[in-house]
Amino acid sequence: MVRVAQKVRVKVDDRELTLTNLDKVLYPEFGFTKAEVIDYYSRVAPVMIPHLKGRPVTVKRYPGGVDQPFFFEKNRPAHTPDWVRTATLPAPGSTKDRETIDYAIVDDLPTLVYLAGLAALEFHTPMWRVDEQGRAQQPDTMVFDLDPGAPATIVECCQVALRLREVLQEDGLDACPKTSGNKGMQVYVPWSHRSENPSEYSKAVARRLEKERPDEIVSQMARKLRPGKVFIDWSQNNPAKTTVTPYSLRANRIPTVSTPITWEQVEGCDRPEDLVFTAGEVLRRVEELGDLMVPPERSATGDGP
């Protein structure tokens, strides 16, 4: 029997979109459909879009669901509507021999829904934005990606994150924790108006903590060094790299989310399960707590929640 693609015409703000295969189950174990993915992104958009805005997005698409092949997409998808904002940026080292890539920029709800409708489950963005003319700007955020090497878990990541916060506070820096939605977590640091290079600064901090706690922390990527330790990946501050965007779904067996958390939750984490949040749980958290990770431009103007 040949399955006929469902097509539904919807209006999102002032844009008309055609959505297909809404009943397609993208998380088979959880029974979570494409319609529910789109619904999640539509409802979380008020807090997610400020983190996406102005950032070239790389999406991870799962047209057959999380248990089927996927692909990363940097170049804006074929047949992208002309109203989707794009930025044409250099592509050094492109595996497809491109000199430039036309990135989509998710500045509004219709663009977010359009990409979700393509089974873009994950959104990944760099630590910098483009200006109104599409030119790359200096980083406005620094990130430490904390990755546990088994048998270490996010519990050990939390212990490292607390020490990391102390070091950052010594330098007058604020820090915002979030789960990766997988096994680890990230610590974000607003970085606007600082003269230091965030990549060099984060590397120095990671090396300092590795020296301080060599049995717990590693700052080098070699996997043979990582079992039982927390890898502080400072290299995510390379302008060519991306990190999963706050509030993005992850392609796990259940629809987990990369979720901003409080430092109290970091301090109180006793089991990995304490910091696992699904799409529905995140929507309830946002309704109750708002955005726990204030985007840099809002932080600078005092317009946080």
From TrEMBL:
Domain DNA ligase D polymerase: 33-292
Pfam families: LigD_Prim-Pol
Keyword annotations: Ligase
InterPro entries in the record: LigD_pol_dom, MtLigD_Pol-like, NHEJ_LigD
MF (Gene Ontology): ligase activity
Signal peptide, first to last residue: none
Alphabetized NCBIfam families for the sequence: ligD_pol
PANTHER family the UniProt entry points to: BIFUNCTIONAL NON-HOMOLOGOUS END JOINING PROTEIN LIGD
Descriptive protein name: Non-homologous end-joining DNA ligase
